[in-house]
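Case 441 in the screening queue. Each case pairs one protein sequence with one candidate compound; here the compound is pyridoxal-5'-phosphate. For every case the pipeline is the same: read the inputs, emit a complex structure as tokens, and attach any notable structural observations.

Predict complex for case 441.
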Amino acid sequence: MTSHHSSPVNSGTNLDPWFGHYAARAAGLSASEVRALFAVASRPEVVSLAGGMPFVSALPSELIRQSFERVMTESGPQALQYGSGQGTPELREQILEIMALEGIRGSVDDVVVTTGSQQGLDLVTKLFINPGDVVLAEAPSYVGAIGVFRSYQAEISQITMDEFGLIPAALCERITALKSVGKTIKFLYTIPNFHNPAGVTLTWERRLEILEICRSESILVLEDNPYGLLYFDGPPPQAMRSVETEGVVYLGSFSKTLAPGFRIGWALAPHAIREKLILANESAILSPSSFSQFVVSEYLRSSDWKAQINTFRGVYRERRDAMLAALDENLPDLRWTVPSGGFYVWVTLPEQIDSKSMLPRAVKELVAYTPGTAFFAHGEGRQSMRLSFCYPTTDAIRLGIRRLSSVINGERELLNTFALTGSFASIRGNDKVTTPPPNVN
Ligand SMILES: Cc1ncc(COP(=O)(O)O)c(C=O)c1O
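Case 441 output:
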């Protein structure tokens, strides 16, 4: 196959015989930093503070095995068969019970089971986004969502947060600015609880304000809530969906409260959107895994799943405490967020330290993290990093933070040395992004 270099599409490389044939949307598919990291950081000697893998070893594996067995004994042929594109009625009922814990009342008819909430993100984006439409999101935002939005050629506009979450006034300003240049804003993507990667929680007052802003501007809210039940102190404010039914599509998941291997998530959507979501789901995957749904249902029916979530809370709380204490001890002059649930701490580095270019040195010192740049659509975030405390033990977390502090301190010394000789700018100039380029994909 010959390459057609005149094609406007430039994804892939000249070594790829199909270079030039890809659809424009394929240009949005790039290997994320997180993905490249998984390969390196999975070496046993590296303490990985990079991935967001839940600690599934804390699950009662015997109960899960019994659920598998009971499904095979009692409903084998159904569990091994194709199912409905919307998901099984039993699981959808159970999902309603789970959402009720966060103040949500809905109808079993309006729940659509998906292959992880990642697929919910994909379906909603597919339904709403034409190339060039704007998706509003927090700055920073979940790397996997940014990937989906890019792949549908959305323009991603990220809005400032502080320790109380997304800032409503900044949202208003951005909407006005985008409208003034004729942009079409389709939805606001938000992670209100124990944000990935920022670790912060949106206050109740701001939830109401943001809903009001979006209602008055006819902007749909996509509320992504995989971590809400993993709180350490008290429950977070109730879901945005608990007070707004027509303007919110809510995404939930069993990945963090049970196990990601089942790949079961869900969307709760207003009636009209729900209808389209089911059709889109059928067209993408025919039906979510019957087997996974049966096993998850059986597990929820036969076990004390709330107690299990409580066990997870205890494990993650202890790890969060270990990480915060280690940061206090080893890197007291840095700034970081204090999460009251979830998996992540967001660390702000001293000025001029670049988390992306420092990463290879960190991995050499046997500690990995996710550079802030992964969570921005346009290259920002170099002065930040995400640290995950979900997977490593408390001892590993302490060791990891000690290693990280020696890497950061080494970097500081290097910077001081070059600052003295005045050659810092020329050495680092190439990797430093001060003004974000307009659209880096
Ligand atoms: C904020 C957020 N949304 C969605 C997902 C996707 O989760 P899953 O597809 O496993 O439900 C993740 C996973 O890390 C996440 O952090």
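Case 441 observations:
- The chain has 13 helices and 14 strands.
- Residues 61-302 form a domain with the Aspartate Aminotransferase; domain 2 fold (CATH 3.40.640.10).
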